[in-house]
Amino acid sequence: MADDTASMPRFPGGGRFRRLGPALAKRFGERVRKVTLRGGFGCPNRDGRVGTGGCIFCSELALLPISGPIDGPIERQMEAGLDLARRRVGAEKIIAYFQDNTATDGPVDELSDLYRTAISHPRVVALSVGTRPDWIADEVYHLLAKLAEIKPVYLELGLQSADDDTLRALNRNHTVADFERAVEQAHQHGLEVIAHIILDLPGEEKNHRLKTAACLNRNRVEGVKIHNLHVLDGTPLAKTYREGMIEISSLDGYVQMTADFICRLDPGMIIHRLTGEGPASLMLAPEWGRDKRRIRSEIEKALEAGDSWQGKRAGSNRGV
After folding, report:
1. Is the pLDDT of residue 65 over 60?
2. d(CA 283, CA 286)
3. CA 36 to CA 49: how far, in whole Å?
4. Of 60, 67, 121, 299, which residue is 20 to 30 A from 36 by alpha carbon distance?
5. Is residue 18 within 8 Å of 269, Cβ to Cβ?
6. Phi, psi angle pair for 231, to nearest 5°
7. Which of 3.80.30, 3.30.420, 1.20.120, 3.30.750 would CATH assign to domain 31-195?
8. What is the dihedral sign for C-alpha 249, 252, 253, 258?
9. By the 8 A CB rule, do 229 and 201 touch?
């Protein structure tokens, strides 16, 4: 673990943190693009099996793929995603990403058919499965472990915050302990973990972010997706926002907290995202959240201005 006196590591592709694109290119030998697939999964936090109403920030409409057909055979969805990857960034290889709802929700035979169809595609270099940390059956871990013998498998776990009070306020209906158990199980089965977190949640302050960074480091997750809180129409959060009961971060505020968070992460962790947004038709706030390039640029400038980098203050999280 790095400390405040360490010198800045050489990250793939340069810069002050470990970025996804260069890390994937180094690992797979060429440019790789992630393609979102829709498996038609359910959500136990909506239908009563875990909770009802879903997470307060979540909209099912925001999970639809942008690359082509939103339903239908996985093969057709992947071909549409490949076509988009070629046209946008010239990528000929993809990561097949099952994202909608809880992508480990279903009979293991059905999950096996979906996952195996995706991972066996000749242009797929890895499989990524997004899910809740409390909704992965033992047989699903075993299935994913078998697939990880073929190609890398990422398990994307929604954490959002390493504070149980915050998780209750978000109607997540799982605990930090659930997340830590899931990471342990994933690692025991040869899977790589990508944690999803939201930095500027209502009621959270710097000490909460320190706890979240410490949790990710302690559990040795391989990657993290950092999101800003964004308000999507049709969600419980939208009602709260319209009633003026929550305050959304300014761009400068989010940039500063993200730069501070990055310097507290283990330098070996890959940062998959620095911001999050929904479809333009659903986005209510923040307005600045629509400009991903600007947000990334401002975060990079903040790190440079503070002579900071990923891992510089990772040791400062200990004991939090």
Report:
1. no
2. 8
3. 26
4. 299
5. yes
6. -100, 120
7. 3.80.30
8. positive
9. yes
Helices 108-119 and 138-148 cross at an angle (nearest 10°) of 20
By residue count, the chain amounts to: 320
CA 26 to chain centre: 21
pLDDT of residue 64: 56
Rounded CA-CA distance 192/194 in Å is 7
pLDDT in tens, 27-44: 999 999 999 999 999 999
Q: Which residues of 130-161 are buried (b: 16+ CB within 10 A; e: fewer)?
A: bbbbbbbeeebbebbbebbeebbbbbbbbbbb
Asked if residues 37 and 81 have their Cβ atoms less than 8 Å apart, the reply is yes
Q: Please give the single-letter amino acid code of residue 109.
A: D
Backbone angles phi, psi at 121, to 5 degrees: -65, 135
Cα–Cα distance measured from residue 116 to residue 11, given in angstroms and rounded to the nearest whole number? 33
State whether residue 280 is helix, strand or coil. coil
Distance CA 245, CA 223 (A): 33
Averaged pLDDT of the chain: 93
Q: How far apart are CA 88 and CA 81, in angstroms?
A: 10
User: In this structure, which long-range contacts are made by residues 62-70, counting pairs with CB atoms below 8 Å and at least 24 apart in sequence?
Assistant: 62/232, 62/278, 62/279, 62/282, 63/38, 63/99, 63/100, 63/101, 64/38, 64/100, 64/279, 65/35, 65/36, 65/37, 65/38, 65/99, 66/36, 67/35, 67/36, 70/38
> Domains of the chain: which residue ranges?
1-13+199-214+229-268+278-320, 31-195
Q: What is the pLDDT of residues 11-26, one digit of tens each?
A: 999 999 999 999 999 9
List Cα–Cα distances, 60 to 41, 160, 194, 214, in angstroms: 11, 17, 21, 30
For the packed helices 292-305 and 251-262, what is the interaxial angle rounded to 10 degrees? 60
Look at residue 63 and give its three-state secondary structure.
helix
Of 9, 65, 71, residue with least CA distance to 33: 65
